[in-house]
What we know:
Radius of gyration: 25 Å
Helix content: 25-40%
Distance between the termini: 73 Å
Mean pLDDT: 93
Shape: rod-shaped
Number of helices: 2
Amino acid sequence: MTTIKMISSKGQLDLGEEYSDRQVLVEQVEPGVWLIKVGQFIPDNEQWLHQPHVKTELDEAISWAQRNPPQSSDLDDLVKRVEQ
């Protein structure tokens, strides 16, 4: 569907209530031409979490944690082991 919209004096474009509070990717294809895509986007500082090898390591760590429930620790014993 094609519609004509007016960009406000503040540079804003109203896409309608159905898109309120949604993230969009705005790509400037060329001056005066934009491609807008609705989606969920990953912040730059979290991109590393979505690399295949990191996902594998995280899956293994979660699996290990599920197989090894927390146990109480003897801190005195731990200090002795560290000091050896």
